[in-house]
Design goal:
The chain is an alpha/beta fold and 314 residues long. The chain is built from nine helices and twelve strands. Helix 1 packs across helix 9. It is elongated. The chain binds NADP nicotinamide-adenine-dinucleotide phosphate (NAP) and glyoxylic acid.
Length: 314
């Protein structure tokens, strides 16, 4: 039995070292040095080159090394019928929660204005407001969205969430489905996306939807934070809305093209904060321990958990 990493854009040797530390007896291989492909029962992949996974005749499970699985599902030759397991791990979730809380607070406490003032030695004690003055709306109330919602609620923000199926979270207004989307947007001063990349969520952060967001918040215009996937935001619409006052500010961790090209106007916009897809980094040792635990479950016939529904796309 062998385990294969297919990570053309990641430092695969770092992942092999981590897996070997977690599971010293496991035969760990790195694509393209696959050895006898018949030996490979399990593979972990991120942006696998077309045909690689299909070429493994005894493959039993495919692992994503992150919460999102778009990087695997985009393989047009992905073998059918092989279960795909994604990451649902407290370490990853807490990293995302830190990011969401950090950026909601950064906007709420107007830290960019304070930094700009300090750079010019200006003592400007402008009025501030309570957390309860701001409504945060989280698109995607899954593992990550729910944890962020709870922490923001505990800080005193008014929190709403939107998902496909309805949730029940104490102190969080839970809306669901296309029919309640406009109502969700109308309540939202700070829009956070923790959605997966699917055909339904592509381009969801567009000018039409930005125009539906609340303007009753303390800044007079809404704020967008996208840590879901870059395909969800229409960069040109975000810039238009920032420049015409329909949007107050944006924090963007993910982009349709990564790395974000140097000539993107987003880089230089004074009210855009850019982070390089690091909202919730996959820690190799933590994630390898998670994957190895799932391999052991599979080997003794226990059901796999955190399975991806290919038809839904997440
Ligand atoms: P998850 O548990 O699968 O949650 C996804 C949520 O999105 C669910 O609540 C789901 O609704 C909702 N959803 C999906 N499609 C929808 C639609 N069309 N309309 C309304 N709601 C929809 O995933 P997760 O673990 O929270 O991760 C969420 C995403 O975060 C990942 O897919 C990934 O793209 C992103 N992520 C980014 C980073 C980063 O570093 N930037 C790191 C990790 C993850 P239901 O609950 O009804 O199914
Ligand atoms: C990272 O983007 C992930 O999906 O975990």
């Amino acid at each position: 039995m062998a385990f294969l990493f297919v990570l053309p854009t990641w430092p695969a040797d770092v992942w092999k070292t981590a897996m070997t530390k977690v599971a010293p007896d496991l035969d760990v291989r790195i694509w393209p040095d696959m050895g006898q492909v018949e030996d490979i029962d399990y593979a972990a992949a991120w942006l696998p080159p077309s045909g690689v996974l299909k070429g493994l005749p005894n493959l039993k499970v495919i692992y994503s090394l992150g919460a999102g699985v778009d990087a695997i599902l985009k393989d047009p030759t992905l073998p059918e019928g092989i279960p795909i397991v994604r990451v649902n791990d407290d370490d990853l979730t807490k990293r995302m929660t830190e990011y969401v809380v950090l950026h909601v607070l950064m906007h709420h406490r107007q830290q960019q204005r304070i930094d700009a003032n300090q750079a010019r030695r200006i003592w400007d004690s402008f009025p501030t407001h309570a957390a309860s003055a701001l409504s945060v709306g989280i698109m995607g109330l899954g593992v990550m969205g729910q944890d962020s919602a709870l922490r923001l609620r505990d800080l005193g923000f008014r929190v709403a969430g939107w998902s496909r199926s309805r949730k029940a979270i104490e102190g969080v207004e839970c809306l669901a489905g296309v029919g309640e989307f406009d109502q969700f947007l109308a309540h939202t001063d700070v829009l956070v996306s923790l959605l997966p990349a699917t055909a339904e969520t592509d381009g969801i952060i567009n000018r039409t939807n930005i125009q539906k967001l609340s303007r009753k918040g303390p800044f007079g215009a809404p704020i967008v934070i996208n840590a879901g996937r870059g395909r969800q935001q229409v960069d040109a619409d975000i810039l238009t809305c920032l420049n015409n006052g329909e949007l107050y500010a944006a924090t963007l961790d993910v982009f349709a093209v990564e790395p974000l090209p140097a000539d993107s106007a987003l880089w230089a916009h004074p009210r855009v904060t850019i982070t390089p897809h690091t909202a919730a980094d996959s820690n190799p040792e933590v994630i390898c321990a998670y994957v190895h635990a799932q391999i052991k479950r599979h080997q003794v016939g226990q059901p796999l958990v955190n399975l991806v529904d290919r038809a839904r796309g997440y």
